[in-house]
Design a protein that fits this description.
The protein is mostly helical. Helix content is 73%, strand content 0%. The protein is built from 13 helices and no strands. InterPro entries: MetI-like (IPR000515), MetI-like_sf (IPR035906).
Length: 280
């Protein structure tokens, strides 16, 4: 009898949890759905009362306007180059630094680590002017490298990798590898790297999405439309006197698709990394 009551309570609680998660998911997905609806309608539907909730028939026309206004596919390609390059470099630097800070001993390790963490609290806008002057003097304006270089060192990524390596890689395994004659880089490549792959997925998604949404720095250093990233290109659609919301949201909708693809490709590793951390 007690077992039946416990089963019933567990069943009711589980149903309630799923209902709650379903409602939260619908609230989270609604802005994306509304963006899609607006991208399929005329600009006048943006301010209509009651608001339009059913997709229209203007998706192709609105997107064609985007293609006529900006080099959309070139901007998407530029953004993919920037995001992939920054993500790969950040993963490499952060994992190496995290391994060094967690498992190696060298003078000033703690001071250097806290100095890197301290940069997180500094607003990036404070360094905008001196960074722009450095990039301009180096002749890198309108160059995609200028849009990447500031993001290669990621303090949050170093912190996450340090915590993950310290908890996931046993010290005994490192010592055994040293006794076998492995170099530091061989230990990183053969032992540490395979263990921290789930953390790679988590950090990779975070970095990729954050760089994809970056606007201020890219808008500052990229002035040639051929070098625009997608965020800068979409901003140029917002003219001073008139905004075609159907066209603008159509561009935003198609620019969001690669982010969804990245998450769907790596969500299993992302979830496994979170689950592994919660178990630990």
């Amino acid at each position: 009898m007690k077992g039946d009551v416990g089963t019933k309570k567990w069943g009711i609680g589980r149903i309630g949890m799923y209902l709650f998660l379903t409602v939260i998911s619908l609230f989270s997905l609604f802005p994306f759905y509304w963006m899609f609806v607006m991208s399929t309608r005329h600009s006048s539907a943006y301010n209509s009362i009651p608001p339009a909730m059913v997709p229209g028939d203007q998706l192709k026309e609105n997107f064609q306007k985007v293609l006529d206004m900006i080099p959309f596919f070139q901007s998407m390609f530029n953004t993919l180059i920037v995001c992939l390059t920054v993500t790969i470099v950040v993963l490499l630097i952060s994992s190496l630094a995290g391994f060094a800070f967690s498992k190696l001993k060298f003078p000033g390790k703690n001071i250097l680590f806290f100095a890197i963490l301290f940069t997180i609290i500094i607003p990036p806008q404070l360094g905008l002017i001196p960074q722009y002057l450095l990039v301009a003097k180096a002749g890198l304006l309108d160059n995609l490298f200028a849009a990447m270089v500031l993001f290669f060192l990621n303090p949050l990524g170093i912190f996450l990798m340090r915590q993950y390596v310290s908890e996931s890689v046993p010290d005994e395994l490192i010592e055994a590898a040293r006794l076998d004659g492995c170099s530091i880089f061989r230990i990183y490549r053969s032992i540490v790297l395979p263990i921290i792959l789930p953390a790679f997925a988590t950090l990779g998604i975070i970095v990729f999405t954050s760089v994809w949404g970056e606007f201020l720095w890219q808008f500052t250093v990229l002035r040639d439309p051929e070098s625009y990233t997608i965020q800068v290109a979409l901003a140029s659609l917002n003219t001073q006197f008139k905004v075609d919301f159907g066209m603008l949201l159509s561009g935003v909708f198609w620019a969001t698709i690669p982010l969804l693809i990245v998450f769907l490709l790596f969500n299993k590793l992302f979830i496994s990394s979170i689950a592994e951390g919660s178990v630990k």
